[in-house]
Amino acid sequence: MFKLLRPRYIPAAPAIALFLISAGSIGFALYAQYVQKLLPCVLCLYQRVPFYVVAGLSIVALMLVRFPAAARVIIYLCAATFGVGTAIAFYHVGVQELWWEGPAMCGGVQSGAGSVADLKAQLMAQPIIRCDKIDWTLFGITMPTVNVFFSAALTVLCLIAPSRWMKK
Fold first, then answer.
1. pTM surpassing 0.85?
2. Number of domains in the chain
């Protein structure tokens, strides 16, 4: 039984896991936006960026799996990226809890405009989504709060994974 608990060196496992987690997180955010009609504020959109970056970095790490040192560096970059994501999510929680003021521009823009006039019309019709307004909770926990803990856990995972599952 204890053999199962010992870490095995599976060089591609962290990169695959990070890609699946990032893609799943982005998919969930897009589902909430387009299916559940929860329009994101600008801080919600910023919180997605680290997941896009990590998805790209994990693909690079998969391509560099034959070069373990380079793949480990990429996974550590993922840790830094998730650390930034944690900070963005914490800032958003602070705005929602009115600990501090949010950014001046607090509306999500979705464009498919073909011209400047079309873009202007879209911007004028676009609802302004306030960053301090709470639209969704689960047991009193908001999405940015969940993202703080999720991103922090992923940061720790990315700091541990290279030494536990990738060749040295």
1. no
2. 1
